[in-house]
Amino acid sequence: MTDQRPEPIFNAPWPALLAAAAVIVPHILLLRADEATIESLALIPHDFWEGRWTGAITMMFVHGGWLHAIMNAAFALAFGAPVARLLGLNGRGGGIFCLFYLACGALSGVGYALIHPDATNAVIGASGAVSGLMGAAARTMDYEGRVGPILGPRVISLGLGWLVVNLVMAVTGSLLTMGTGAVAWEAHLIGFAAGVVLIGPFARWAGPRAQPEA
Q: How far is residue 28 from each of residues 25, 57, 125, 173, 192, measured CA to CA in Å?
């Protein structure tokens, strides 16, 4: 019988650790920030369509409480690890990983703003970006460092599970953000879908080893 031990957290790929740090470090720095500062960094759909587009990016670095931040950091670490290994652990692969993460997060925010164009609530958190990592990881889980089919069984099962979780979030309201911002559950699902779709072209960009299956 082989002695299999879980991989230590600090043996996780550095891009995944960076994604987790991008959640925790800004949260610490913003612990004493006032409401005006938080709102200036949040995504507010009405303001987005008035030209304040930066919120689709900056919202990823703002979290409403430690529970919200720790959960997103843990998910970024867990699902970011296989994506980081797929895209490569050198500087180029890490850069592509960061762009993928930001693209999923931004698309989730824009998608939420499209669904709720007149909303004035502050939307915060990296959950859309982390959901993108989840979607991408689902396409790699059964394919040994390659990208599997876009509608593979793992994508469908994980996607359905994530749908159920987010429907529960829709009912429980802003529990995770401690009332600081909305739980934009639609953005989570858009982020997941973005990750599933975008990992194909991003894998091609990363190189032959990560090429998706036909």
A: 5, 18, 14, 24, 27
